[in-house]
User: What shape does this take?
Amino acid sequence: MGKLALAAKITHVPSMYVSELPGPNQGFRKPAIDGHIEISRRCRELGVDTIVVFDTHWLVNANYHVLCGPHFKGRYTSNELPHFISNMEYEFPGNPELGKILAEACNRFGVETMAHSATTLAPEYGTLVPMRYMNADQHFKVISVSALCTSHFLNDSARLGWAMRKAVEEHYDGTVAFLASGSLSHRFAQNGQAPEFATKIWSPFLETLDERVVKMWQNGEWETFCGMLPEYAAKGHGEGFMHDTAMLMGALGWSKYDGKAEVLTPYFAASGTGQINALFPVTPQDGSTIPQPQASDAAHRASPSRL
Assistant: This one.
């Protein structure tokens, strides 16, 4: 019935918003913003009606959650970085129908998921920043999925991604994009050192690790990448423990994915963290390699608290 037309790993750094404002940093995140604008252009070209964002700024301690109200409007100030994002206005339509379809499919796959269509809950900035540049005209409906998961298996996040793809293909009459909104390495600069690291990665180890991962994506080394994802999430200080990435890879077919990433915004640093905008072509898959529930691999359990 429906179609997953576009998948991407995207940045949401708040310095994108800062770069809009008059001052010494005006324009310095233009490549990241341009990457979002290009993703929006391609979504429109492909006929996408709804963007589903796996948001690593939505922290949850139990279950997976889908925010799918009919409409979102407000003014947002970041509780983490109020000096970066303050009183940022947003507005876009939601998609309650699809949100419920997604949650129901995840539950059928054994991944406990709840849809929230009648709620005062508002999106986090992992959704709001990208939509500022991709959806300023409210062209797309938007759904946000919790991806800062403190007590969850990466395997279950991969299964969630695959379940959501199947839900779109089998139960939704429309065209959808999935965006994994989160960084590569996510080791912030120590307090007081953020200005010094505005355009630097925290350590040579993390920079080398990230750059090798990007090469894996471009070369299509998916079996290797999926195998190392739990340890990469832990040792690379992965944002949201990289549940957004697991969701994205699950939707694409996990280790049997046969596409190659297209980098739209080259790897860059922000306050010590590693960032990118990259497209992952959606290819036919049968889901045969999606991880099973609750794997015994200790690396999947290695991050009980936020990094």
User: Anything to note?
Assistant: The chain has one domain: 3-301. The helical segments are 15-18, 30-45, 96-108, 125-134, 154-171, 204-219, 222-235, 243-252.
